[in-house]
Amino acid sequence: METVIEIRGLTKTYGTVKALDGLTLSIPRGGVYGILGPNGAGKSTLFRTLLGLIRPTGGEATVMGGRIGDPAATRRMGSMIETPRFPPFMTARQVLVWLGYAHGGVPIAEIEAWLKRVGLTEAADRRVRGFSVGMLQRLGVAAALMTKPDLVILDEPTSGMDPPGIQEMRALIRSLADDDGVTIILASHQLQEVQRVCDRVAIFNKGKVITEGRVSDLTASGERLRLSVTPLARAMGVLGDRATLDGDALIAAVPRAEAAATIRALVEAGVEIEEARWIGADLEDVFMSETGWTGVQGTPVKGADHAG
Amino acid sequence: MLVDALKSEAYRVSRNRTAVFFSVLLTPLLFIIGGVAFHIITKTKGDALAAKASLPAALGNQPVNLAEALEFAAGNGANGVLLVFMLLAAASVYAGDYRWETWRLISARNGRPWLLLGKIGVMKALAMIAMLAMLIAAFIFFISQAVVAGRPMSFDLSDFDLGQFLLTGLLSYIRIVQYGLIALLAAVVSRSLLAALFVPWALGFAQSILGGPLTPVIGWAPTDWASQLLLPGLAYDTLKAAVSPGPMPLPEGAVMKAIVSLTLWCVVPVAASIAWFQRQDLSKE
Fold this sequence. Notes:
heterodimer; A: alpha/beta; Rossmann fold; Alpha-Beta Plaits; 2 domains; 6-stranded mixed β-sheet; 4-stranded antiparallel β-sheet; 11 helices; elongated; B: mainly alpha; two-stranded parallel ribbon; 1% strand; ATP-binding (chain A); P-loop_NTPase (chain A); AAA+_ATPase (chain A); ABC-2 type transport system ATP-binding protein (chain A)
């Protein structure tokens, strides 16, 4: 598997805080790669390190075959880290011309095309000081992509966008990966978005990768059996701690290979099965399970210790 | 890479009309307005005195030599007012990316040293434009003198020394650039627009006090190594005196000390800024 990023034991400490804790990760060329994790997991620190904005404390990494911060490699990357900021006295068009010059020049026709593609044609001559967060995000995406990079890093690319904008951004990211062959790495807290757009994900916690793989594999491994049965108590007795109540049904954490045997055991125990169907885990389930966070009050519920 | 950085910074500065106006154009405009007002007041007072004493006009029809504007502009190119207002441009150019949080956008597109050198190049161009604007203002000052006083104009280059003009202009230019480089170092180290503005100003103010009344008090002669190295303003004055010799000859070695001083005051801030910037965390701005 050809990779665009190879990270081995990367560490970044701020005082006594380890933002990256011996992180090891390989990101393949092509497709959309998602980086997930709770706040403070190290996602932004990793992005900033890969872009050469900060120096790692230890470990090593290569980006596009070059060392971190190698200008030749960095110039082949596009990035948008958090909500981008621009000189307030410039218009959207001027921002792209300015950044284009720094990169060796981007033809004005391509700048116009990017303004159109991110929906900023009508606002192209407005000063950015009056832009909404969503408009700044769109301009940031155009700035990241207009130099035709081979690798794009997007940190929360849909933050502050309205639903149509989010849909457009999702389509843009997929088309860049599928049609233009650009490798895209994105971090987002919107897990449904990540599930829809990413091919692979890595879940971070406390500066380390705790799970990595294809989205389809990760969600498949969390498949569960939903059973409408009577009596519930007898079924619970058969399934033990593999079952949890979901209203008047049971959710059983049973691998597909054991499903037939489980149903047979229920029937033999006198349980009447009205309905049995597979329900897939979504990325949110995987995320919550792997990071051990409820996502509601930020309270660790399980498995939090194995992350650190 | 450097060319790209220069183009990029020049484009951005050209869009920042407020900074360009205050730094490059305001001082010449104030000079023109003040000059015209001065000529009108002088003419009015002079006419009133002449009428009262029944005297002929003081300068009669003696022509105003516009060539003097060249020497005036070269000698006063690095005047205090222009230096202070040029700091506005220096702060905007050198600290703008910290103020607007745009280093993370721009630093991925070019090498860090090239980006800083591009900014220095643009500041040098702004200094040149400011001096040209002062030259135009000086011409307008002399023309307004002739117009207000009703005197003829001439352009007599018989006493004009081209070498002296160029060297004096070069010294003024170096002084402006050197002053701005303090703003560069202050901007990179502090990441602050205000520091880029006020550190050179405060340093210049302190140096002017030391270079004036205090130097004799603490026992330094103006052409000592200590005075020349610590006070670039004195080094600048020494070189100006060498270019336009006065009645008092300069002590032996004074010119060399002044050249060393100005060179160090230009090179050290650039080298220190680049070294600091290379290791700087640009994710927090």
